[in-house]
Amino acid sequence: MNIAEMVDERLVSFGFEARNKDEIFEGLGKMMYQAGKVTDLDQYVKGLYEREAEFPTGVGNGIAIPHCKSDCVKEAAFTLVKLKHPVEWESLDDLPVDYVIMLAAPNTSDNVHLEMLSKLAASLMDDDFRNGLKDATDIDQIINIFKQKKED
Amino acid sequence: MYLVAVCSCPVGIAHTYMAAANLKKAAKKKGIEIKVETQGATGVEDEITKEDIARADGAIIASDVKIKGMDRFESVPTMSFKVSEPIKNAEAVIEELMEALG
A65, A67, B4, B91: which has the fewest Cβ within 10 Å? Predict the structure, then answer.
């Protein structure tokens, strides 16, 4: 399986308006809910905050990966959301965040899809992959970037 | 030089694998051989074996949670880091261990 197969256009945005982390959790959580990936919006968003409290998910280079593994997640999913304005996120490199990859992981033994989420996270450490993703302006470009990503 | 490492994090789907990817990338850049075990939501991958330990010059634990099998590393100089440290700067993590090894 390639991660490209998991790209869901309902979870992609090229100019999401949000002023802060709270609006992002709420807004992207709603996208997950409306796309049918999570069954309980409140529980999912609560899970995001609980994980975020362990340590912030701003991983540097303008990217944040808030995530939650919960019974309320129906199937593994991720957002690819470019923000209209960068927001503060207590990132590892202290820079604001302008791209949010929110992950939803089910509490199942569906390891294939969980592994895809992990591969996506690992791929973000690849400069070319990350920059390509952030520069993409349509879904086709995103799919191509995923397809071209070489397996390590 | 042969290093072994274990990465783990609270949820086990993202940071574990980012830290592992960065350690491998940094080691490659420095021309150092490394094996990185990941303890994530999908289980243990690339497990560090007795043979690995016997050959290892040093070990890196990058984790915010208690890792499985910590006792394996008793015979090897081991340094512990937060899982976020190699995500931020994996080369610095490897350098810190190298300096300690002397």
Answer: B91
Architecture per CATH, domain B2-101, reads as 3-Layer(aba) Sandwich (3.40)
What's residue A149's pLDDT?
84
Tell me: ipTM over 0.95. no
* pLDDT, mean of residues A108-120: 89
Domain ranges of chain B: 2-101
* Chain B nearest-CA residue for A122: B18
Give the C-alpha separation, A118 to B36, whole Å.
Answer: 15
Is A108 near chain B, with CB under 8 Å? no
Q: Answer whether A1 touches B (CB < 8 Å).
A: no
Report the residue count for chain A: 152
| Residue A92 contacts B, CB cutoff 8 Å | yes
Percent pLDDT > 90 in chain B is 99
Q: Domains (ranges, CATH) in chain A?
A: 9-146 (3.40.930.10)
Give this prediction's pTM.
0.95
- From B25's Cα to the closest Cα of chain A, the distance in A is 9
